[in-house]
Amino acid sequence: MSVELLCAIESHNYAKICGIPRDFTFQHKLCHDFESLIWVIIYAMMIRRKSTLAATNPIHHTAYKEYLDGYWGAHSHTKLLNSHMALMSAGMSPRRCIVDIVLFPDPLEAEFFRTAMRLLGPQRDGDAEPLTYEKVQTLFRTYIRKTEQATRSTLAAT
Amino acid sequence: MFGASVDDNPNPMPLDCLILKNAWRAPGGLPESTLYKVINKLPAGDGALTLRCVAGFVEGGDVMAEDVRQHTHFPSSSVVGERQRVAIHVSSHRGFVADAVLNPHDPVLHRVVLATRGRSMASYTSLVELLSAGECAAEGTHSLDGLCRRRVNSFLGLVALHERGVDHKDVSIGNVFLGTDPSKPAGFIADFDLSSISDEAIKVAYPTEHEEIIRKLKRGEWRTVRVSQFDFAALFLIGRYLGNNSFHVSGVAMRYRKP
């Protein structure tokens, strides 16, 4: 779910708890579907990483699962919103940190994650232009191309 | 998914594997099966190839049951003991059929049969495959040569659907899929339960009936029209294992269950 939608749901729920009835007037747009699609890609990467570790390294698998649950095991919109914010912060941090060491050891996946979070970051702040297809397409194609190049380099080296 | 059960059959059907989705839908909104029908009727663009970045729709509708009237206050039949076909509601599963029929907010059992098989996004074999699937889902470009170099058409991805008046609104890991062949990276989207559709798109898909459809949608009466039942999985499987290839899924649905 997009951050903007999660914020709207959180506000709506808060108003409901406070007894201030109001309609949920959030206007779902195409840019929100694009943002959700990027989150799907990120989530798929992390699930695959967990599955790989389950077969190769049980100890790391257990540790990774905790991270995965921490970021995605949300049972409320507020927690999911906070988790998205945390992932964005991690992705936009210039320091090498949990992103490269734990979450995405594959350098291209880590780079994709950082670029994607930088794309979504301004959406979080609410002052950016809506996410367009051109931006999403550029993101995908850039890393498709980079992965192809990396594959070719690996093949050439062997 | 009952399609997996027939994979080993020596006499494959034209549609040899189908996905059966069973869900409770909120009444009043556009049923998912109808949305698929609308999508299938929307113009595909100027490309010559029919490429799908939306799950292939076979059949669908609200599930109907034949029920014996136990009460006298049914809206369409007041004869106690008369058999009548009614949509299955949550309440009807709990033994409150009469209330269910009268309650406009009670979720209705809805089924959709899809012909497109896919894999979980998390089962990708390379980053290229994952991102290619993402791109397919986003726009509708479909790569045939494996590496997304050959853009052959723009057909019914999120952008193409949006341009035709349909917004998905529920993009999640369970609704975006990889294609079955990892060597040909592609993806598609499914699950239109929460999607919205413009009046214009309905008009394009149903040029002669759109006014009635839009009116019923606005009044929350959709569930009273275009329902069909197709609890035909058993018939389908029996037909397959008896080698009876005359069973065709949509045919079964129409022949046996069209109200």
Tell me what you see in this structure.
- Chain A is an all-alpha fold and 158 residues long.
- Chain A has one domain (3-132).
- Chain A has 7 helices and no strands.
- The radius of gyration of chain A is 18 Å and the shape is globular.
- The model of chain A has no long low-confidence stretch (mean pLDDT 85).
- Helices cover 28% and strands 16% of the residues of chain B.
- Chain B has 9 helices and 10 strands.
- Chain B has helices at 32-41, 90-93, 97-102, 127-138, 158-163, 199-205, 210-218, 233-241, 249-257; strands at 19-25, 57-62, 64-68, 83-87, 108-114, 119-120, 166-167, 176-178, 187-189, 196-197.
- Chain B has a 3-stranded antiparallel sheet, sandwiched between helices. In chain B, strands 6-8-9 form a 3-stranded antiparallel sheet.
- In chain B, a hairpin with an 8-residue loop joins strand 8 (176-178) and strand 9.
- At the A-B interface, helix 2, helix 6 and helix 7 of A face helix 4 and helix 5 of B.
Question: Helix and strand layout, with pairings?
Answer:
The complex is a heterodimer of chains A (158) and B (259).
Chain A: H1 3-17, H2 30-56, H3 58-72, H4 77-92, H5 98-103, H6 107-125, H7 133-157
Chain B: E1 19-25, H1 32-41, E2 57-62, E3 64-68, E4 83-87, H2 90-93, H3 97-102, E5 108-114, E6 119-120, H4 127-138, H5 158-163, E7 166-167, E8 176-178, E9 187-189, E10 196-197, H6 199-205, H7 210-218, H8 233-241, H9 249-257
Antiparallel strand pairs in B: 1-5, 2-5, 3-4, 6-8, 7-10, 8-9
Helix pairs in contact in B: 1-6, 6-7
